[in-house]
Amino acid sequence: MSDLIKPASIILLVIVVVSVPFLQDSVNDEAAKFVSDSESSHDGLPTQWDGKQAICIFFPESNTHPEFSTGVTMIDSDGETIGVNDALNSTGACVGGFEGHEQGMDFMMDATRVAGGLLSVGYTMDPNWGPFVHTIGGLNVDEVQGDFSGAYWSLSHNGEYSMVGIGDLIMSQGDVISWEIATW
Amino acid sequence: MLDAHAVVLSPIEALFLNLSLLCIVAWPMWIAGKSLRPGNDLAMLALLALFATSGRILLDPLPNIQPVTVVVLLVGAHYGASRSVAFASVVAISSNLVLGHGIWTLYQALAWSLVGITGSSLSRIFRNGNAISIRRVGAVAFVAGFAFDWVVSISALHSIPLESFPVYLMVGLPFDLVHATGNLVFAAWLSGPLSEIMTRQSPQSKAVVEPVKNAS
Asked: Any chain B CB within 8 A of the CB of A161?
């Protein structure tokens, strides 16, 4: 019996490891249902983006973006600047008005491209954990220095800390994702 | 984790490199452990800590598959709760020197300590006559995989709100399953030999050996 358990456990492990990506997909789908309603996450965004997808990048006070250093610039999906919202208590840019995106990473790349290089994204691919975003709009996390151990680009989904990385994020209609610098 | 000088290794190649290194580490340790004089339980603990630490670091390319949980469980069963707590904390700290130290180290040390305490309280149940019951160790190690991950997940409450915690745990379930199944493999392959050498070095075996020495 105990001789059988040795090969059997290895076979089981291989089956589990191979099926993890599929399990993860279905679990992430389930998790996406728990993300709170996207309505309030549109507060402060142009009303024409209601029910549509948007991404916001917020820069820390110590490292403001050279182009978006005051208020939050609203850029439409066709690349036109709609306006600047000075009432959001942070600086940066949002790109919105998209529809039909499902994969978080694809959406992020498509949406930031609209800003014509001003919001370009740098990331590394980790074989286990997927894409790791280190640079947005020219700000690399290593450049953020202060009274803390380190900084990272932190992802929120409809205003709440995202449970999954951008590579696993499943987007629904009207979802807003945002990135800001967090420290540890 | 590993960077070869001028040679770029694919993840699979890095994994094979690490597995070979682990064999190179484990084999002499196994010989050394077997040749220790009986009653040398502290040296045994040190060898096991080196094995668990290097095993965790070298298996890092495989997500959540590492021998520490099973080794801590067995240390608890053979050497008792207090030693397993010290053992678990040392392994958590030393492996995190390479893998990354942070607030999670505290929770990993806590969670592995709980595994060790569980092992010590189940030591009678694990025993099957003179040998160890691989099936029982395997069953407990499987459950411990989930329990360990959930205790470590508490560290996420430093950055996420409490109401998101159930979803956070749910998203982690596939990784918990990998940990649990990996534990089953380590329990199946390691609990027999490790239990054998640990029993030889247990504090009790000293008492058995010494009268024999005196008699000769």
From this structure: yes
d(C-alpha B84, C-alpha B95), whole Å: 16
B134 in Cβ contact with B188 (< 8 Å): yes
Q: Tell me the nearest-neighbour CA distance from B209 into chain A, angstroms.
A: 30
Disruptive mutation site among B126, B181, B183, B191 for chain A (greatest number of A CBs within 10 Å) = B181
Return the DSSP state at B8. Answer: P
Residue A168 has pLDDT above 70, yes or no: yes
Backbone angles phi, psi at A49, to 5 degrees: -90, 0
Q: Give the three-state DSSP class for A98.
A: strand
Task: List chain B residues with pLDDT less than 70.
Answer: 1-6, 203-216
Q: Is the dihedral of CA B61, B64, B66, B68 positive or negative?
A: positive
pLDDT score of A2 more than 70 = no
- Encoded amino acid at B204, one letter: Q
- Residues A108-123: tens digit of each pLDDT: 999 999 988 899 999 9
- Interior angle at CA A21, CA B138 and CA B151, nearest 5: 50
Distances in whole angstroms, Cα of residue A46 to Cα of each of A50, A145, B87: 8, 33, 57
Judged against a pLDDT cut of 70, whether residue A47 lies above it is answered with yes
Question: Is the entire prediction scored with pTM above 0.90?
Answer: no
Per-residue pLDDT, B213: 46
Q: Rounded to a whole number, what is the distance in Å from the CA of B114 to chain A's nearest CA? A: 24
Task: Tell me the chain A residues in contact with residue B160 when contact means C-beta distances shorter than 8 Å.
Answer: 161, 163
In this complex, the residue of A13, A127, A164 whose CB is nearest that of residue B11 is A127
Could you tell me if A103 and A124 are in contact, meaning their C-beta atoms sit under 8 angstroms apart?
A: no
pLDDT at B211: 44
> How far out from the chain centre does Cα A112 lie?
11
Residues 6+ apart with CB under 8 A from A25: none
A1 CB within 8 Å of a chain B CB: yes
Residue B124 token pair: 């009678």
pLDDT at A37: 56
Chain A CA closest to residue B10: A127
pLDDT at B4: 56
